[in-house]
Amino acid sequence: VNQAFLDMFGYEALDEIVGKERYCTIHPDDRERIVGYARARQKGEYVPARYEFKGIRKDGTPIDIEVSANTISYKGEKAILAYLRDITGRKRLEKEVIGERSKLKTLSDNAPFGMALIDKEGHFTYTNPKLTELFGFDLPDIPDGRTWFRKAYPNTGYRRTVISAWREDSRDAESGALKPRVCTV
């Protein structure tokens, strides 16, 4: 192991870890799986080259580890070369993002007004339940703005008036900007 490995797992010097059980830095919850990977790799069996596991620092603190491992020849013997990276911070942020997405979904799904997300090509990527309640269209019914306008405003002349007002309202809009008026013509 190198100094980065020692630092990652909270050891100050090599002699603190030399002589310890080989898998002492792997959390007990993941030990069986990781030992299985090592044994399979040594036998030449397929093992993922990249994987994650829960590690454990010298002080008992769990950490998230990403591994990139390969079988190599070292001094004429088969050996495993593994690069480990502490991804604890990344995992924490991923969990926070998932939590924020869940909150946003709860808010949008329960909003008292209709909402739609439209990508740059004009395809609807999300509609909330209130939009469906108001107009009676589910997302598969209205894959894009053109289809929505045709269904919501079947009268061609009126539809053109509504689209013109919508374009005027959204002409200088930037992503996320609020507009003072909703297209109601």
Description of the structure:
The chain has about 180 residues and is of the alpha+beta class. Helices cover about 40% and strands about 20% of the residues. The protein contains six helices and five strands. The chain has helices spanning about 5-10, 30-40, 90-110, 130-135, 145-150, 155-170; strands at about 50-55, 60-75, 75-85, 115-120, 125. The strands form two sheets. A three-stranded antiparallel sheet has the order 1-2-3, with helices on both faces. It has a two-stranded antiparallel ribbon with strand order 4-5. A hairpin with a 2-residue loop joins strand 2 and strand 3.
Helix content: 25-40%
Strand order of the largest sheet: 1-2-3
Strand percentage, roughly? 15-25%
Overall SS class: alpha+beta
**Low-confidence segments:** none
Based on Cα principal axes, name the global outline: elongated
Topology as H/E string?
Answer: HHEEEHEEHHH
Measured between the Cα atoms of the first and last residue, the distance is 71 Å
Count of extended strands: 5
Number of helices: 6
Overall average residue pLDDT: 89
Q: Oligomerization state of this entry?
A: single chain
CA-atom Rg in angstroms = 28 Å
Largest pleated sheet: 3 strands, antiparallel
